From TrEMBL, chain A:
Protein name: Cytochrome c oxidase assembly factor 8
Keywords from the named record: Membrane, Mitochondrion, Mitochondrion inner membrane, Transit peptide
GO cellular component, one term: mitochondrial inner membrane
Membrane listed as a keyword: yes
From TrEMBL, chain B:
Cellular component, GO annotation: mitochondrial membrane
Protein name per its UniProtKB record: Protoheme IX farnesyltransferase, mitochondrial
Domain of life: Eukaryota
PANTHER family documented for this protein: PROTOHEME IX FARNESYLTRANSFERASE, MITOCHONDRIAL (PTHR43448:SF2)
Catalytic activity reported: heme b + (2E,6E)-farnesyl diphosphate + H2O = Fe(II)-heme o + diphosphate
Length: 194, 414
C-alpha cells in the first residue's frame, strides 16, 4: 500500500510556498513522482489551497466511484490525530483498490458475456451505425446472477473488514474530538487563571 | 514535440498542467474543426434502469459536440530576435490555446473538489437526507394509521407523542443504515448522492445524530406512551440496523426481515393507543408485511445490475422466478387479510368489499409481473404499490368498526 503521509513539515510545498502539507491517498502520475509521492494509477493532480484547514473531497473516481479525500495535516497534530488520519488514508486506499478492481472486472465480464451471447446469435458487437448492441436486462440476468455468486466470498470478507474499519475510524474520530475539546477546555482554564 | 514541451513548461504558469495531461486531454476531449475548438463529450451513460424514485430518463449513448468559446491566449514571453519571436509567438499561442482549454477542463475537475467544512445553513437539508425524511414520513403515517384504526377513543396527546417518537426512531435507524453503507451507496445510482457519500457530513456526526434521535425517541415512546411501544421501537431500530442492513449482503432472507421492519410501525401505533398487542395489531402488521413484497420486489427488478455489481443478495438477482412468485403471492394475501379485518372486529364488512377493486388491481399487476417479468410490468407494480397502501389504510379507517356498535353488541349479549 502506497502513499503514507509524509512527516509533518517535510511534505510537498504548495504554490504559496508555505510549508503546509496535504497527504494524498491517490497521487497522480508524473506530478506525484515530481513531488516525492508514489505515483498511483489515478490522474488526480488536485492541490487544496494553502490557507485551508479542512480536508477536501473530490469527484467520484472513474473506476471505484468512491470520492477521494485529501486529508489536512494540522500543525499541532496529536499522535491520536495522526493515527486517525493515517488509518483513514489506508482505508481509503484499500477501499479504492477493492472497488476499482470489482467494477473493472464487472465491466470486463459484462463485455465478454455480451460478446459471447451476440456471437451465439450470429450478431456482431456493433450494428450498422457503429453503435454497440446491448442486451436486455432479462438476457443479462444470467450474468448478474453468476457475477454475484462468483464474488460472494470476496464480499463477505470485504464486509467484515469494512465494518471493522468504519467502527474504528468513527471511534477514533470521537476520541480526537474529545481530546480537542479537552485541550480547549484546558486552555480556557489557564486563560481564566491568568 | 520536444519543442512544444519546452514551450509548455516555459509559458505555462499554471504548473499543474503537464505535457502528458495536456496531450491526453487534447486527444480525448478537444478537437479542432475549422479553427473552432470543440469539446466532444459523452454524457455519462446510465448503466441500469433508471431509479424509480428519481425521474431520470435512460439516455441513449451518444456523443455531444459542444463548442468551446475561444480563450484569448496569454501574452507569450518573447525572446529577442523578431523572426524567432514570430515563430515562437505563433507556436506558443497555439500551445497556450491548447493549454487554456486543457486548463479549462482541468479546472473544471478542480472545481468539483469541495472543502469538507460543515455549513450550518445546509445542515437541516443534510440531516433530512441522512434520515431519509420522506421514508420517515411514510413510516410515521403508517404508525398513525395504526393508532387511528385501533378501537379506542382518540387521544390527541398520545397520538402526537407516538408520531414524534416513531419519527425519531426512524430517523435514527435510517442514519445508521447510511453510516454502514457508504461505499455501497457510492456504487449505486439510486444512492450515490447521499450526504455521507458526498462527504457533506462526517461519520461521527452521523452517528451522533442517530444517537440523539434514538435516545429521546425511544424514551418518549417508553415514558410518554407505554413501555410496549418503546420496546417495539427499540427492537425495530435493532432489526433494521443490525439485522436487515448487514444481511442485505449475505442472504436473500433480508427481504423478509425488511418486511417485518415495515410491519412494526403500525403495530406500534396500535399498541400506543390500546396498550396491548391484539389480533387487530397483528392483522395491521400482516397487511403492511404483505405489502412490502410487491413493493420491494418490483423495485429491485430494475436494480439488478447495481445489486450484482455491489454485492447485494437480492431475490431479483439470485432467484428471479421466486422474486415474482413471492410478489404475486403477497398481492393475493392482501385480499385474504382484508377479508380477515371484519372477522377480527377491526372493520365492518364494507371494508373487504370496497377494497376489493384496488386489491384485485394490484393482484392483476402482480400477475402481469409474474408472467411478463420485464421492466414495464415491474414499474407498473411498483408505482401501483405507492398509492395502493395509503388508499387501503384510508378505506380501513373509514370502515372502522365504531365503538358505539361494539358497546351495543356487548349489551345485547349480556
Amino acid at each position: 500500500m502506497a502513499a503514507a503521509a509524509p512527516a509533518a513539515g517535510a511534505g510537498p510545498r504548495v504554490w504559496a510556498g508555505t510549508r503546509r502539507c496535504f497527504s494524498r491517498a491517490a497521487g497522480s502520475g508524473l506530478l506525484a513522482a515530481e513531488r516525492g509521492h508514489e505515483p498511483e494509477s489515478r490522474a488526480s493532480s488536485f492541490c487544496p489551497p494553502a490557507h485551508s484547514c479542512n480536508d477536501w473531497i473530490g469527484p467520484p473516481d472513474r473506476h471505484s466511484n468512491l470520492r477521494p479525500i485529501v486529508f489536512h495535516i494540522p500543525k499541532n497534530e496529536s499522535p491520536l490525530g495522526r493515527r486517525l488520519r493515517e488509518f483513514r488514508q489506508e482505508t481509503q486506499v484499500w477501499n479504492q483498490q477493492f472497488w476499482a478492481s470489482q467494477n473493472v472486472s464487472f465491466r470486463k465480464g459484462k463485455e465478454e458475456f455480451v460478446y459471447s451471447r451476440l456471437k451465439a446469435k450470429g450478431l456482431e458487437r456493433k450494428d450498422e451505425t457503429g453503435q454497440k448492441i446491448t442486451l436486455s436486462a432479462e438476457e443479462m440476468a444470467d450474468f448478474y446472477k453468476d457475477f454475484l455468486s462468483k464474488n460472494f466470498k470476496k464480499h463477505v470478507c470485504y464486509n467484515r473488514e469494512w465494518y471493522k474499519r468504519n467502527f474504528t475510524i468513527t471511534f477514533l474520530m470521537g476520541q480526537v474530538a474529545f481530546e480537542r475539546a479537552w485541550r480547549r477546555l484546558g486552555w480556557k482554564k489557564t486563560k481564566v487563571g491568568n | 514535440m520536444p519543442c512544444k514541451f519546452m514551450h509548455c513548461c516555459g509559458v505555462a504558469n499554471k504548473k499543474w498542467i503537464t505535457f502528458q495531461h495536456l496531450n491526453f486531454l487534447k486527444r480525448m476531449y478537444v478537437t479542432q474543426y475549422n479553427k473552432d475548438l470543440s469539446q466532444q463529450a459523452k454524457p455519462k451513460t446510465d448503466p441500469v434502469a433508471p431509479p424509480f424514485l428519481e425521474k431520470k430518463h435512460l439516455g441513449q449513448e451518444k456523443t455531444v459536440i459542444r463548442e468551446i468559446r475561444p480563450v484569448s491566449p496569454l501574452h507569450p514571453s518573447l525572446s529577442e530576435t523578431s523572426n524567432r519571436n514570430e515563430f515562437k509567438a505563433v507556436n506558443s499561442a497555439a500551445v497556450v490555446e491548447d493549454l487554456a482549454t486543457a486548463g479549462g477542463v482541468e479546472s473544471k475537475e478542480e472545481k468539483q473538489w469541495k472543502e469538507m467544512k460543515l455549513q450550518l445553513d445546509d445542515l437541516p437539508g443534510i440531516l433530512a437526507r441522512l434520515s431519509k425524511i420522506k421514508l420517515t414520513a411514510l413510516v410515521v403515517s403508517t404508525a398513525s394509521a395504526g393508532f387511528a384504526i385501533a378501537p379506542v377513543p382518540f387521544d390527541l396527546t398520545c397520538f402526537l407523542l407516538t408520531s414524534i417518537g416513531t419519527g425519531l426512531a426512524s430517523c435514527a435507524a435510517n442514519s445508521i443504515n447510511q453510516f454502514f453503507e457508504v461505499p455501497f451507496d457510492s456504487n449505486m445510482n439510486r444512492t450515490k448522492n447521499r450526504p455521507l457519500v458526498r462527504g457533506q457530513i462526517s461519520p461521527l456526526l452521523a452517528v451522533s445524530f442517530a444517537a440523539s434521535c434514538a435516545v429521546p425517541g425511544i424514551a418518549l415512546l417508553t415514558l410518554g406512551v407505554n413501555p410496549l411501544t418503546g420496546a417495539l421501537g427499540a427492537f425495530n431500530i435493532f432489526l433494521y440496523t443490525c439485522c436487515y442492513t448487514p444481511m442485505k449482503r449475505m442472504s436473500i432472507v433480508n427481504t423478509w426481515v425488511g418486511a417485518v421492519v415495515g410491519a412494526i410501525p403500525p403495530i406500534m401505533g396500535w399498541t400506543a393507543a390500546t396498550g396491548s398487542l391484539d389480533a387487530g395489531a397483528l392483522l395491521l402488521g400482516g397487511i403492511l408485511y404483505s405489502w412490502q413484497f410487491p413493493h420491494f420486489n418490483a423495485l429491485s427488478w430494475g436494480l439488478r445490475e447495481d445489486y450484482s455489481r455491489g454485492g447485494y443478495c437480492m431475490m431479483s438477482v439470485t432467484h428471479p422466478a421466486m422474486c415474482r412468485r413471492v410478489a404475486l403471492r403477497h398481492c393475493l394475501a392482501l385480499i385474504g387479510l382484508s377479508t380477515m379485518a371484519p372477522i377480527l372486529n377491526v372493520t365492518t364488512w364494507n371494508f373487504p368489499l370496497i377494497s376489493l377493486p384496488i386489491n384485485l388491481y394490484i393482484s392483476y399487476l402482480g400477475f402481469r409481473f409474474y408472467r411478463d417479468a420485464d421492466r414495464s410490468s415491474s414499474r407498473k407494480l411498483f408505482f401501483c404499490s405507492l398509492w395502493h397502501l395509503p388508499m387501503l389504510l384510508l378505506l380501513m379507517l373509514t370502515c372502522k368498526k365504531s365503538l358505539l356498535e361494539k358497546e351495543d353488541k356487548s349489551e345485547l349479549l349480556s
